[in-house]
Protein: GTPase Der
Amino acid sequence: MLPVVALVGRPNVGKSTLFNALTRSRDALVADMPGVTRDRHYGVCRTGERPFVVVDTGGLSGVEEGLDALTAQQVRLAIDEAQVLVFVVDARDGLLPQDRAILDDLRRSGKPIIAAVNKTDGLDLQNAMAEFSVFGLSSTLPLSAAHNRGTPELVAAVLPMLPEDAHEELAPGEDDSIRVAIVGRPNAGKSTLINRLLGEDRLIVSSVAGTTRDPIRVPVERDGKRYTLIDTAGVRRKARVDEGVEKFSVIKTLQSMAAAQVVVVLIDARENLADQDLHLIGHAVEEGRALVIAVNKWDGMDAYQREQCQRALERRLQFVDWAKNVFISALHGSGLRELMRAIVRAHHAATVELGSSELTKTLERAYEAYQPPLVRGHAPKLRFAHPGGTNPPTIVIHGSRTKHIAPAYRRYLEGFFRKRFKLEGTPIRIDFRDGENPFAGKRNVLTEAQVRKRQRMIREMKRRK
Structure:
């Protein structure tokens, strides 16, 4: 396991900006307002001689109620698992009583502490650092995380405090795990589902909609298989999104869908299927991602409500009838085994490698069973097929007049290939390619005998007229 370094401090002191600078990424959401980060966000810093895990935490506001209390609980968990604590303060705000209270809590942990005085750009460095010398810490470093100044010195100060017996570990998404993005509307139960799969309170769960803002990647192993679960922010209708932070959260949600291999769209069974759910499903199909539809909060509904919900799903999800519908309860854990099996099947179907000979034989059977409609009196010819990629499975079909093939016939071929190769839970892309005409651009030159024959025919036709 890699050693862990936790970034702790008040809200809006630049912890997420420092996290992005250390990990050389833009994973953490950054905004000029307090309280953006709430959950623990993990990344790997590789800028020094040895890599280590960096944990971005929410700001400690000193309020022990509501979301602030849940955020403080996540910060305490990060402090417990870290080997080194980086106490981030704001040089522009100066030393505040709240900073002293946070430092006292960090000292009780008995772990090494480094004070990182952020936002020192444009200030008199000596005066700014003098104010924080009362901390009495051996390492108090100035930096500007926004401009990546002082971060090499911070890494150099952290490395000697880390244990030497740590071994390299792959970051989430870099190994052979299945990347699963869990998306849905706000308050659909995404964080509750991940906590239930982990068996611990890894993510903040609240009845307040929009609790999750950053996409959080969580590795988990279940039934001998490894997964990387990506908890995303809830996506509302565009007309209801008015905050800049929420807009960036939605963008990161869509980016997480593109980076995943399987997308689980979580639907609240008690609120029926909304148009926003359909938009998310459509975006997953456009990205070519394997799809599983999980209907949450199934418990507590009577037989009539369940029947109406199932009918609505069958009616409105006909365009993705190949996706598996799983009915679960993230709170009580029912249906989770079936959900994970559906994810594995969808991932297998999306990444299966098909052979050219099998695809061509299947194409011939489909063509013999039902030929495409005529185009100007001629039927398009489909000659052979070969694979064009995975995730999603792409089938390249070569033939003639394929540009005029109707969309209905394309859907017929998709269904035929899906049934033949049992491709459940993944979209299929078919790429038609016309064969080149070997006589294109060439002109037939007549011989002298052919020219004389043609002239005789022209004279005969004129004489008959």
Remarks:
- The radius of gyration is 30 Å.
- The CA atoms of residues 34 and 303 lie 46 Å apart.
- Residues 178-351 form a domain with the Rossmann fold fold (CATH 3.40.50.300).
- The chain has three domains: 4-161, 178-351, 356-434.
